[in-house]
Specification:
about 120 residues; mainly alpha
Length: about 120
């Protein structure tokens, strides 16, 4: 039993160490020649005129939110589909209820015009 936890511990250490090693190597090997042009803010190569803080449409946020909802749905449905033959009727009813709630949310967003590209 402890050997199973040792595997998880080694995996966690490696998962933490690899990005840290990559960042440290990048910091050691990078060129160190700062100048005012390199330290300037880059905005697509165009100098900004006026205030740079502008509002963006909340529509983009709603698209992203709906995408995340259906992405999470896929994460929940996949294990259910893999184990479908071992599940009972209760699991089928639960999944139908889960999908019905998500479809209801999609219909609500659709009727409110959240999916209209403007």
């Amino acid at each position: 039993m402890p050997s199973q936890y040792a595997f998880i511990g080694v995996f966690a250490i490696v998962a933490f160490a690899l990005p840290v090693i990559g960042l440290l190597l990048a910091r050691l090997l990078r060129p160190k020649k700062p100048n005012p042009i390199k330290n300037a803010t880059y905005e697509c190569g165009v100098e900004t005129i006026g205030d740079t803080w502008v509002q963006f449409k909340a529509q983009y946020f709603l698209y992203a939110l709906i995408f995340v909802v259906f992405d999470v749905e896929a994460v929940f449905i996949f294990p259910w589909a893999v184990a479908y033959d071992r599940l009972r009727l209760y699991a089928l009813v639960e999944m139908v209820l889960f999908v019905a709630i998500l479809v209801g949310g999609l219909l609500y967003a659709w009727r409110k015009g959240a999916l209209e590209w403007q």
